[in-house]
Fold these 3 entries.
Entry 1:
Amino acid sequence: MSPSRDSVVAGLQSLMGHDRVATDTETLAKRSLDTWPLPLVQLAMGAQPAAPLCVVRPRSTDEVARVLAHLYRQGVPTVPYGGGSGVLGGAKPGPDSVVLDLGEMSRILSLDEDNLTVTVQPGVFLGKLEAWLNERGYITGHYPQSIDVAQLGGLVATRSAGQFSTKYGNIEDLLVSLEAVLPDGQVMRIKDVPRRATGPDLRHIWLGSEGAFGVITEVTVKVFPRPVDRWLQAYAVPTMRTGMEVIHRFLHDGWRPAVVRLHDEIEAERGYASVVNKGESILLLLSEGPEGYAQAEGRALDRTALAAGLHPLGPAPVEAWLEHRNDVHEFEQFIRAGLIVDTIEVSARWTDIAGIYERVAERLRREVPELIVVSGHSSHSYPQGTNLYFILGAQPPRNPAEVERVYKAIWSRVMETTLAGGGTISHHHGVGKMRAPWMPAELGTSYKVLESLKSALDPKGLMNPGTLLPLSGQEPPRP
Ligand SMILES: Cc1cc2nc3c(=O)[nH]c(=O)nc-3n(C[C@H](O)[C@H](O)[C@H](O)COP(=O)(O)OP(=O)(O)OC[C@H]3O[C@@H](n4cnc5c(N)ncnc54)[C@H](O)[C@@H]3O)c2cc1C
């Protein structure tokens, strides 16, 4: 039998002190949701999310270890909470859970200028770290749109990707080492070296672990000297397929522009109507690096783009994107008004991606009558393929159950079409609670390895139940 709320709270208060265990209504309400649009739209219609038992705020690895060991002995489910910017319910707790809020572990610990790394506690917000590094002549190279609301621990735990990833890499390329606490309170540390060939790379257990294997308590990431040179250019593109072929050519030839974004005709009209013709897509490019690098790369990219017949638009559209790229206030307004506004990011090989883009858009428009709009862009490219980031809007009836029906109608079609087209169901937002039911289909014959890892590290199944792996018997919704 699980312990009562009162005994869980009293046990944690005697372990940590009263001031570190919050039970007030406001804190519980704030920590009962992350940025998952489904419950946020339902909240706008009056549905109240379940609150956790309490919120604990550790300040050190030792405190995390003591709390986890205690909750593990008591058999209490525990949900690590970072910035709460996850969009899939990964940090949304159940009513029987304790939330472990990492927000007070927010110290930048050391900058190693010889080895180009910085070490931080997990609760440091990325935007704060970037500003701190900029003052010292460095950058993180990691620019997710949520830079000001996501923490380093959360970014590692969700395998995040930044807007300049084509040059600097994603978080798995940037993470050098870490420390974490296992569900039973044991601390484990991975040392700080540039590369290793000592069996499977254990960093990858934590990259994308989403709180299901334990708590990340320290992170060391790469830093880069501030680039001194930039080249920007935009192009009008006749179709998404043509744009994808041009990006494929850049990457194939060995170029790695920091920003490569191809927005479809709907997004081009939404953001760049004064420079593109109706029906055209837009390609935004940005190169940066040491003296001479960006101009040299820019000249090569320009030659390829012109040879493919793209129409140059100058740097202004890229400058406009740079200025407004993290502004999402309209999304928040729509959600508060009871509209479903969501983003779904998938990826696939060059040979599959255009087909997935076309089939997802066509299927949603035909099969989901509540859909208002579906648009898409590619924003993270590799020599082997690229991602698609769908932006979706729908008008559900004003009722929480109907919101869920329409929401799942959209998601199930995107997941199913992506899997059928040979893609992966998430490029960078992760799995959370929303995608967990599709994980067996996503991983196929390797799903059993993920299950074994979960039961080896968390045999009682107490860390973030229902996130990353589905709950027992949970099936994906059918389209
Ligand atoms: C407007 C907006 C834009 C976004 N843009 C991007 C983008 O460009 N790229 C991108 O990759 N993502 C993006 N995201 C998604 C989100 O910001 C990322 O998933 C981010 O990595 C989550 O970090 P967080 O600190 O907010 O984690 P949370 O949301 O608090 O948690 C996410 C998951 O990680 C776990 N977790 C958190 N901290 C720890 C820890 N220390 N140890 C173990 N587990 C932990 C939680 O339990 C949860 O499962 C965006 C989100 C929003 C709202």
Entry 2:
Amino acid sequence: MDRIKQPPMPLVRVVEFVRGALVVLHRRLVPGPIALMEMITAGWLTQAIYAAANLGIADALVGGPRTGAQLARAVGAQEDALHRLMRLLISHGIFTRDARGRYALTPIARPLCGGSEVSLRDTVLFFGSEIHRRHWTHITDAVRTGEAVGATLDGKSFFEYVEDDRETGEIFDRAMTSISTLTMGPLLASYDFGRYRTIVDIGGGEGLLLGEILRGAPRSRGILFDLPEVVANAPARLAEAGVADRCAVASGSFFDGVPPGGDAYLLKHIVHDWDDERIGVILRVLRTAMTRDSRLLLVELVLPENNRPHPGKYIDLEMLVNTGGRERTESEYRDLLARAGFTLVRCVPTASPDTILEARLT
Ligand SMILES: C[S@@+](CC[C@H](N)C(=O)[O-])C[C@H]1O[C@@H](n2cnc3c(N)ncnc32)[C@H](O)[C@@H]1O
């Protein structure tokens, strides 16, 4: 995977600040009901993007602009209905339509292509999927009980569900890999992984991130660890990244044990999946595998203490509904780690909403 050029962090922060200020200004200027209505219909936009991804509209436009009739034929849609879908998407900058009525890609539409450098196609296919929508229908129950909805709806936890139902599981695994393509560049640009001889990616999915880390750290070796059915596709991915000879693949449950001997134990978007008690178990398992020189690297959407918008505030509800986990603030991470015998050494921000929390054994 080629690396996208990363913007400098101060610029990212200024843009975020200006954007936040404009959002606040807009909300103060428009009447409350109008501002609320916009937010109420925001979910329909997700579904419209889902339809575009499902139909493969972006992929059909990779070769260049197409008329409505050509596009409808290419994606198997009814032309007028497709026009109505495109009209909404275009109003949000997703696709354009020129004076001759031909549809084309925009920078926001391009990540809907399957093969693009940063592809969010599989992400939206999961967020628009039947199971995801069914679970979110029950968010009120989750808020009433504080429990994820899967146990009641499916008779099992989310991860048990995707382990058993491999059709859904594969959509989920691809979605996780897809989200990783978004945050990968900023992550690699912000941290020197090359200083570790052996990097163990715990819950590393299909190995996309570890493959890219090893590609940029030619003297390091890796161990990818995840559930057996999840790592099934990993050897092919690692070979694609050209690092298969430096990366072992191991499987099992991180509640039972993880490979020992790593210099760095990387857990990206793992801690947020679990409540404090379950994560305490995982951290204690990690302790037994680590030495005093090893480092624990958590990659998470650390929540700000302020009331400004932050992607972590959405994912926090996703965790409430689906996994029973939660997003946390820096001080909550510090306490969580301390209770399990770790000291938070430093927090490294990235140009994406992810932060790297580096910890060592206390
Ligand atoms: C939210 S995904 C994150 C995947 C990857 N680290 C990333 O950021 O793209 C959580 C991962 O934890 C894995 N996982 C869930 N339960 C596990 C367990 N008991 N043992 C090992 N891995 C597990 C899932 O298979 C999944 O790959």
Entry 3:
Amino acid sequence: MANIGYGVVRTLRRQMFNHLQQLSLAFYDRNEVGRIMSRILNDVGSLENLLSNGLLLVFADLITLVGIVIILMTMNLELALITMTVIPILAVVMIIWQKYSRTAFLKVRTAISIVNANLQENISGARVIQSLSREDVNFRRFDSMNEANFDANVSATRLAGGLQPIVELLMGAAVAIVIIYGGSQAIAGKLLLGSLVGFVLYTQRFFDPIRDLSVWYTELQRAMAGGQRIFEVIDAKIEVIDAPDAVELPTIKGEINYDHVSFQYVEGREVIHDVNLHFNPGETIAFVGTTGAGKSTMVALVDRFYDVTTGSLTIDGYDIKKVTQESLRKQIGVVLQEPFLFSDTIRENIIYGREFATEEKMIEAAKAVGAHDFIMRLDKGYDTVLQERGSNLSQGQRQLISFARAVLSDPRILILDEATANIDTQTEVIIQQALKRLLQGRTSLVIAHRLSTIHDANLVVVMENGKIVEMGNHKELIEKKGIYYHLYTMSYAYNDDKAAPTDKHGTT
Ligand SMILES: Nc1ncnc2c1ncn2[C@@H]1O[C@H](COP(=O)(O)OP(=O)(O)O)[C@@H](O)[C@H]1O
Ligand SMILES: [Mg+2]
């Protein structure tokens, strides 16, 4: 029994994990981590009892029930039918009860899921919470969610408990009917007293499996509430999928073309409006614009983390919707402002996804981005195990590791989304030199705040509210004295006063 029960639990978790890995980023935008975790752990756990103990017992109960019914009927058909008149009443009670219990059990599942989501956020955000002294407020919030969870459990249990007395009551009623009816027959001499006593004893046995079954029925309702939530995950639609006739993207040169691309994260709120762009292979393109202009979105579309809503995006003439995601992403390297490192050694983190890479290649990549030195200074060098998300490294060091990861993967297209935000100017110079060499023959899309990166770009794309407002190289755009010029004087003048065309106060 345990084997089958836990086997089902294991299979469900496996399917959920596998599905979660394929679900598009849009799913993760919509669902909190804690709630997803709750579905995999708690909701699946709610099936454990039913599956590992219930199934066989229910089966046994059903067989007993059938056996007793046959015995009762052969003993005295009339009395047997009278006994069973309570069954329809029980059925009606169950149907009504089920309606309420389903809601109550679902509430239990939601309540614990809310507690989990809140926990997850508070644990991950411990630093921010402590720095803003929000402990008290958050504690009160947690307390109220915890309380709601308690309430939900108590009222569900109360409801579950309520079914038993009703079953007992009906059982008593049935015995009473048998005794009254059978008794009068015995007095009339139509029935032997011994038969009546025997029948009453069997009637009691008749209710044993029913009592048991009603307990398992409660358990079933509890499990169904969990099951519903499990299948919401397993059935969640994967938005970005390989087309049935998707082809392998051959080794690309890196030509990117946006053809009337529009995009919306949420229905009805377009964030990229009808963009047309063309990048030649090997070019460095810098995206510039105020926060929220749509820069990150523009580059995320290239990696097909989201599908364009209308229009098309082609790489080397291939519509990226028509090639396999794997062959596409293998040729694109991404470095983000918040690099994600895994709780593993530095070596494993660098070769993540490129497990076949040799030790030399790995070290070469680390050297290329200037990470080798600091790694060697660590106690265990490349074998240093990172704590969660690399919290035992500085932010800049984490970025260097994710740079090494991108370099090792030798991508045709490199996407840097504010990737140098936490790296000091000196290290950036090292990376810039390394990248210059590495980017030969590669297309790179760069979102950066540092002037040096933008200076060298072949093309600067200026975005505002999801539209391209200016395009050209740095020099042309400065001369144009348009939006770029204003952005540049406003945001860069302070950081880089030597290169700034205006005085430090940004008065133009
Ligand atoms: N995951 C998301 N879900 C919904 N809206 C989003 C999401 N990410 C970004 N946006 C919205 O899209 C717009 C562009 O965001 P983004 O591309 O991140 O800007 P930038 O990188 O230029 O600062 C913003 O208005 C932002 O609110
Ligand atoms: Mg951004």
